[in-house]
Every structure is written in structure tokens, then in C-alpha cells.
Amino acid sequence: xxxxxxxxxxxxxxxxxxxxxxxxxxxxxxxxxxxxxxxxxxxxxxxxxxxxxxxxxxxxxxxxxxxxxxxxxxxxxxxxxxxxxxxxxxxxxxxxxxxxxxxxxxxxxxxxxxxxxxxxxxxxxxxxxxxxxxxxxxxxxxxxxxxxxxxxxxxxxxxxxxxxxxxxxxxxxxxxxxxxxxxxxxxxxxxxxxxxxxxxxxxxxxxxxxxxxxxxxxxxxxxxxxxxxxxxxxxxxxxxxxxxxxxxxxxxxxxxxxxxxxxxxxxxxxxxxxxxxxxxxxxxxxxxxxxxxxxxxxxxxxxxxxxxxxxxxxxxxxxxxxxxxxxxxxxxxxxxxxxxxxxxxxxxxxxxxxxxxxxxxxxxxxxxxxxxxxxxxxxxxxxxxxxxxxxxxxxxxxxxxxxxxxxxxxxxxxxxxxxxxxxxxxxxxxxxxxxxxxxxxxxxxxxxxxxxxxxxxxxxxxxxxxxxxxxxxxxxxxxxxxxxxxxxxxxxxxxxxxxxxxxxxxxxxxxxxxxxxxxxxxxxxxxxxxxxxxxxxxxxxxxxxxxxxxxxxxxxxxxxxxxxxxxxxxxxxxxxxxxxxxxxxxxxxxx
Length: 591
Ligand code: AMP
Hints:
The protein folds into 3 domains: about 10-355, Rossmann fold (3-Layer(aba) Sandwich), CATH 3.40.50.12780; about 395-475, Roll (Luciferase, domain 3); about 480-590, ANL, C-terminal domain (GMP Synthetase, Chain A, domain 3, 2-Layer Sandwich). It contains 19 helices and 29 strands. The termini are far apart. Helices cover about 30% and strands about 25% of the residues. Bound molecules: adenosine monophosphate (AMP).
């Protein structure tokens, strides 16, 4: 078994120097005691733990360092962040927004996004951050499902992504506009308010209302194989897990300069791109720009980043860029590198050890788990290619699967696979604070995610004889492209709204850089002829509506395979695309 051995100096310096000991003694109660709680026993609020509680002792510490697209650097101290988030909370109150109302953000990674996120939580409202590269369809779908009452966005994003569906969003009452004054709605137009104006009109003192740890805090959309996006509901108590897992899996503490490259539109960008580092009182780097290998190395070096959390696709792109680029920068401050979201190739772990001076620590979690569940650790050796082992406080199992690919339900629950190196569904014992509390308006889907006291993850994994977990694939048809989860149904629905398309099926096609890329197959309606023009038109049509989750490849296929009951067999399409064995064809309808 290939192992990257950690030097003793690294082991001793780690914030969790003894994994086995920490697992044996860990309790969520003790982890909760690390939180300060709202004054006078008024409960637990994420924004208080992230901002207000640091102000007395560390008010002058930089909380956010924002690197602008224009090359500027803006430092915001904890004291300043408190004032700004207080103003935002006051603005919501002034607008008549009530506790529990949903506040959506559709913003680039500017300071406004971070202030709006934390101010929303202070006000007791529910934050739902949307990825600003989504097209109008995914944006409208999520705003509709989540019944957003407030949207914070830029004039340009509003015009392009929201205006087309405005009539279908009856719950949306306030659009707060910020950022570039491009052509867009005026402040005077009904329902639109300039964020700057509304913030200027309110004070910077705010008392967080009593917050029950079980009050809803966050709504994060994720995708399944079928149906609409799922809104995973998280509560304020999740902060206990954000904080504890950041120590255990990211080796994060108050003296760190931390950079999480994920956008807050995805769960990593919220749990670890906003909440966890601030609960530790660390300095969080926020980069408005997109991936650029040279600039990223420069950011790591110039800002003396100590802990870096990123994604395999980005690391593969850096590795492709060559070792010389890294050598030109002083990365000596970088102590811990971790990645999440998609399989991390063993070569990249080795590359990182050589080029960045520390191996990448792969870890695993998902929107529903709210926090890191399985990880490689700072003080522990690494088995390149493995996701690592469960965190303290987390019990993981591999379950026998049934014919549908998901955990087999037997009387009394499910069956654990104890033979090492056997594929099964990854399951986690219910009971950690950041486990989602529901899928919005989808109670049955939520209930179906649990059996026998386990949360069923939908991932297929193996556990080796020493308890390390290895990712094998998904039990369903969702696609992971550049670390972003894409539901095939959402893409297929948009393609089928084109007049030429009779039927569509979407798969993830393996790609050396992005892990998978989204590939669509369509059958045409009578009267339409395949050809380059239609091919390009369909891709452009999908791109306009879906944005970053649109298919990159498309093929016309008059014979999409179906089950006898009429469902498209994406799995078979994928096998055909890859030239793999087609498996059991007994349920396939033959044309
Ligand atoms: P999301 O809910 O968008 O964060 O996506 C979660 C999914 O990403 C998981 O269910 C896995 O399929 C995949 N994933 C996350 N981390 C890893 C990892 N370290 N290795 C392989 N797949 C991962």
C-alpha cells in the first residue's frame, strides 16, 4: 500500500495530533461547548459565532481580505464586519422582512456577498446563496422552489438571469441591487432598492434575536437523478460541526490565513468559504477572480496563505501548468492543503507533495451532510487515492446494495458489508449537528434518505482492511463536472423545451481535467434534420438558459435506449459512449 509518511515535526504541530485518541474521546456536546452562544442564553446563531464573538478580543484582526478583479486588496476587520453585517440585518428589518423569510444572493464573490450572507443570518432569516454562473432557468427554479422574498444581486445579473422569469416569482418582494451600475432596473422602479441606499438609511447597532439552534439558517440546492433540484435545509446548530471539522480536517485555527476557492453558491463555499474560518477568528481570503494558474500561485505566496481548501479540477489544472510556475513563488507559508468535491487522483497528491511542499488532503462530504465527514488528516499518513477516514464524531459504514444500486432494505433496516474492499453504499450514522433537516417541500424524498438509523449518501465506496475509504462512483446518474453537481433531469428538461427536440438524455462523460463533462443525446422531432447548424443551435440554446451547467457536447441519436416502462437508460448510454460492457439488458426495450 503506497503511503505518504508525515514527518514527526508535522505530526506534532497538527491541531489534532492524535486521530485515534480524538475519535475515542470526541463528543458533540464538547464540540458545542466551543461555541460562545448568544449572550444571556438566547441561543446559538451562526453569525454571532462567526463575527460578533470575536470583536471584543480580536476586533482589529482582519476577518476578510478581499482581492478585487481590479487588483485591489480590501481588508475588513472583525469589528468592521460586525458593523456592516449589523447594517444589513437592520436593512432587512427596515424592509419588513421577517424571521424565517428566505434571502437569496446572486452575486459574484464581492464583499457584498459575505456581508449579505452573515447579515441575513443575524436577522434570523434563511440564506440561500446561488451560483452567479447559473443561467436563468436554474436561478428561477431555485428562487421559485425556495419562495425567495429578498434577492440581493447586481443590475446586470438581474437583467440577464432573473428578469425573464420575474412573473413566475410571486414571493419575491425586494430586489436589492449592488455593484456595477450597468443597464438595469432603476432604484425608483417598484420592488427595487439600491443596497447602498438602504444600508445608509439604517444604523450599525443590532442585537441578534433569540435563535434556537434548530432554527433554519441555510437553504442549499442540490441535484438528484430525477425531478427538480432539492433544497437541503440546514439549521444554526450546524455551526458546531463547521467549527469542529475545520480543526480536525483542515487543521485550521485563529492564526491562519485561509483560502477556500469554492464559490458560496456551492455548499463548500458557505460552510468553509464563510462560516468555519470566521468561527475560528482566522483571516479569510476572498478572491473575486476566476481560476488563473499564475495568479493563484501569486495569491498563495503574496498573502502567505497557510491553509488552502480547493478542488481536484483546479489542482489538475495547476499540475498541467507545470512545476516551474510554482517554483517561481514562495509557498513556504503553506502548511496544509485539502481538496473536496470529486475524486482526487493519486498522481495529484504526489504532485502536490513535490511541488507545493505538502500533499493534498482529500476529503469527502456533500450538501446534505453540511460539513466534512471523511478526511485525510494533518498528523496522519496519506494513502494517495483514498478519501481518508471518518472524522471524530462520525460513524461511517458500507451497505449492501440492491438491484436499483442503492442500499438494500431488509427487515430491520439495512445490511452492513464488513468484508474489506467490497463496493457498497456509503452511509453515515445519524446524529451530527450539520446533517440536513429536510428537503424543502419534499418530505418523502427526505424520508427515503434514511434507513436503520443511517443517512444514505448515494455514493458507492469501498473500505479497506484498515478502515480507509475509497470512492468508487455514484449510485445514481448525477454528474460531477469541475466539482459541481449537475442533475441530468434539469438539463434534459431545458433541451426538451427546444422545438426540435423530442427526447433528451444527459450523462457525465469522463474528462481528464474536469472529472466529467456534461454530454447530451437528443432525438429530433419529425421534420427536423440533424446537422452542424442545429447542433450548434442546441448547445447555444442550452447555454443561454442553463449557464455553467449546460452540456459541452451534444449528439443526435435516433435510438435512445429505454426500459420497458419507458424510462431512458442513461447508464446504458454511458456504457455505449465509453465502449464498456452494457451489462444486464433484460429490461431494455428493443425498438
Ligand atoms: P455536493 O453535494 O454538490 O457537494 O456533491 C457531493 C458529491 O460530490 C458527493 O456525494 C460525491 O459524489 C462527490 N464528492 C465529494 N467529495 C468527494 C471526494 N473526495 N471524492 C470523490 N467524490 C466526492
